[in-house]
Amino acid sequence: MALATVAATACAATVGVLNTSTATRCAEEDNIAVALLNPAITGFTVEARPPGYPITVDSTAPDMENCNRGTRDPVFAFRDPQRFTLFSNAVTVIVAERYGSFWRSNVVTLKVGGAIAAGMHTMTLRRKIAGLAIWPECMVLYGSDGNIRLKPHPPLTLADNVFGQSVLVGPVTNELRPVVDISQIEYVPTLDDLILTYSQGGSATLHIQEISRSKLSLNVEVNAPLGPSQPFCMVRSMFVSSHNCDCEFGAVRLTSTNTWGASPVLQTASARAGEALFFRSSQPQAHNRSAPDLWFGGFLTRSRNPVSAIVGQRALTQRSSR
After folding, report:
1. For 32-49, what is each residue's pLDDT tens digit?
2. What integer pLDDT is reported at residue 96 of this predicted model?
């Protein structure tokens, strides 16, 4: 069903915001976990926006200080690791990749028209900058665990920008950390849609509304069964300190007062909200200075009956990070 059809029969909705983040001293650990909940959800919009401060120099090197190198994830080996172009036209390039190893055994099928790649881990979308012969990466979909990374085109002051926060879209479960089980990812060039097919049934369509230097905007249609307290979306990120993070603050537009409230992301209170924003403002940042902020809004449900808040009913039992 097209997003326009859903919008015609849907109504504006609010969502539960459930924060299960934990503190860390390791900058390579995704300790931020903020879930969005509403079992009747049919659609929403997510935007990756440039940080609200000027950037002339970036720093992207890994920071392993205070990281416990003795802690290891499971390791599954895969034959024939490879990376290749699955689709290309004048505007969009789709790259498929299979890793040599990964922390989960799951793999997905990637599809663009008649081109099919089985047993893959990621699909990367590169989008041309208008007026330039440059196709930077804008989206990486980790089909093997459900994480999606988004970023707009880089500012004029940088040759490229970096990914930061991740988004999980669909029925979120836990397997050492939050995951979404996906069996197939299809890109439809004529519609500029990415279709996620879930292993347990249902799907989501991510329609690319805009990719520019100002933002990357996705209109998301959700058509998947959800448990009464199961997140349909989750933000994963990293916070060590205000000057060493991918996300510093969480802000929500509260349903009760229709006003915005912001707090340090570790202290972002669970609430019912009509919009949510995860961002940074402190300078300088230790690394990934160009990583974008994330905004969520435009929530839709098919029912006009109010959906009770799902906050505090459950915390994700496994909080280990990505």
Report:
1. 999 999 999 999 999 999
2. 98
Give the whole-angstrom CA distance, residue 155 versus residue 318. 37
Beta pairing, strands 182-188 & 108-112: parallel
As a whole number of angstroms, the distance between CA 252 and CA 260 comes to 6
CA distance 278 to 245: 11
- Identify which of 174, 132, 172 has the alpha carbon closest to the alpha carbon of residue 153: 132
Q: Are strands 239-241 and 244-245 parallel, antiparallel or unpaired?
A: antiparallel
What's the one-letter identity of residue 295? W
CB neighbourhood size of 264 (10 A): 13
Paired with 115 in beta bridges are 112
Sign of CA dihedral 244, 48, 152, 128: positive
How far apart (Å, rounded) are the C-alpha atoms in residues 19 and 178? 13
Burial of 136 (0-12, 13-18, 19+ CB in 10 A): middle
Query: With a cut of 50, which residues of the chain have pLDDT below it?
Result: 1-8, 304-322
Beta strand pairing call for 216-223 and 32-37? unpaired
CA–CA gap between residue 69 and residue 76 (Å, rounded): 18
> Looking at residue 9, what is its pLDDT?
52
- pLDDT digits 0-9 by tens, 90-105: 999 999 999 999 999 9
